[in-house]
Structures are given as C-alpha cells and as structure tokens.
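On clarity, I found the account of how folds are encoded harder to follow than it need be. What matters is that the chain and its backbone geometry are given together, residue for residue. I therefore recommend that a typical entry be quoted early in the introduction. An entry of this sort, consisting of the sequence and the corresponding backbone structure tokens, reads as follows:
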Amino acid sequence: MANGFPEGEFFLLNTQAMLCLAANPGGSRNTGSFVTKSGSEIEYTQTQPPVAQVECPNPPGRNQFQGWYFDSSKDSWGRPANYLVSRMKVSTLGSFALHGSDSFGVEPLEMWGTGRDKVATWKAEGGYIFLDGKPDRVLTIDSRADNPTPVLAARGGDYQRWHFIPFV
C-alpha cells in the first residue's frame, strides 16, 4: 500500500451515501468556425477534461468511469507522484488525476492532466481520503446540491468515509 491506497485498480465507494467516485467524460465545446472559399463551414471543437462526480455503482462492464488507481511512481528527482488517477484515458488527452486545492470552505474537485504541474497529492487513512499533509479537509459528498458532488470539506461531517473495492 502506498500512502494508504491499495495496489491495482479499485472503486471508491461511500457506503453511507452508496455512491461511487467517478470521472466522467467532459464532452466537447465549440471553439469557433471557419468558412471556406467554397462557402462550407468548418467547426472547431475542444475536448474537455473529465468531470469528477459521484454516482450509483454500475454493474461490471458499464463501470469503466468509476475505476481508479494510485500512482506512486517517482519523478526524475525520486519524489513519488501520489496521484489518485482515473483508470480511463480520455482520447489523446491522456490520464487525469483528482485535484483539489487547500483553500478554506467547501472546495469542488476537478480532474487535472497528470502531466500538469502541482497536481494534488493524496493520502488515505482510516477510511478518509485527504490532500497529503492536510488531514483536516477530506473527500466528502456534498449532498446540499440537487446533484451530490465530490468536494473537499472539513473533517467531521457526513459522507466522508470511503471503501476501496478491487476493480474486476
């Protein structure tokens, strides 16, 4: 186990809410268009990064966006990455890791490319998942919104304990 995470791929299940953490495709957005000399229009789109969400567990074969792994590989200076990475690669964009900041309040989580600088590093302990070195703010399901959302929030509330289930 590295930083409290299991080896291999796994699901993150919050048994209190009975919801899994997922990284669903972010879709695409139109970034502009160009009209050719012949009068036809070419539209340009950009693939958006995945979106961190919580959702009901899906049965095998339909749960690919709910799988995660912990990347503890070392960089060129010998420091472990300690990224919580979605097992699904998004087209040519590559792999995405769960990212949160250490600001105060309830902080929504994002998905950042693993090649980006300053991607959040994580630790798991006693069912809590938190930014490495900051155990007072933990991965939580914010149930106040119409759609429950994964956030970082102060330790001590509901929907904060997670279970690792091997991905099969």
